[in-house]
Amino acid sequence: MKKSKKKALLTSLIASLILLVIAVVGTLLFDYYMKYIEFDLVGMIVGHIIGFLVLFFIIYRYESKDDEFDEQHKDHNIF
After folding, report:
1. HSE on the CB side for 8, CA within 13 Å?
2. Cα separation of 17 and 6, whole Å?
3. What pTM was computed for the model?
4. For residues 64 and 8, is the Cβ–Cβ distance under 8 A?
5. Residue whose C-alpha is closest to residue 17's, from 64, 65, 78, 60
6. Nearest to 38 by CA among 51, 27, 49
7. What is the dihedral of CA 48, 51, 52, 58, to 10 degrees?
8. Helix 3-33 and helix 41-72, axial crossing angle in degrees, nearest 10
C-alpha cells in the first residue's frame, strides 16, 4: 500500500471514529433526557454503523483523490 493511501486511510478512520463517538454520545444524551421518546437499540446501532461507513468512504475517497491529483501534476514545471 502506498504511503499516501495509508495516510488517507488513517485520516478517514480517525475522522470517522471521532464523528461516530460524537453521534453516539449525542444520541445517548438525547435518549437520557427525553423520556417520552424511546429509541430502538438495534436501529440506533445499525444507523450509526451505516453512518460511520458512509462518512469513512466519503472522506477516504476525497483524501485519496487529492493524492492522485498531486502525483499527476507534481513534476510539471512551466518554467
Report:
1. 17
2. 16
3. 0.72
4. yes
5. 60
6. 27
7. 180
8. 150
Residues 24-38 as b/e (b if ≥16 CB within 10 A, e otherwise) read: eeeeeeeeeeeeeee
Q: Locate cell 493524492: which residue?
A: 67
**Three cell numbers, residue 40:** 430502538
Which one, of 1, 27, 5, lies nearest residue 71 by Cα?
5
Where does the chain have alpha helices with state H? 3-33, 41-72
Placement of cell 475522522 in the chain = 15
pLDDT, tens digit, for every residue of 9-20? 899 999 999 999
Helix (H, G, I), strand (E, B) or coil at 73: coil
- Using one digit for the tens of pLDDT, what is the confidence trace for 27-69? 888 888 888 877 788 888 899 999 999 999 999 998 887 555 5
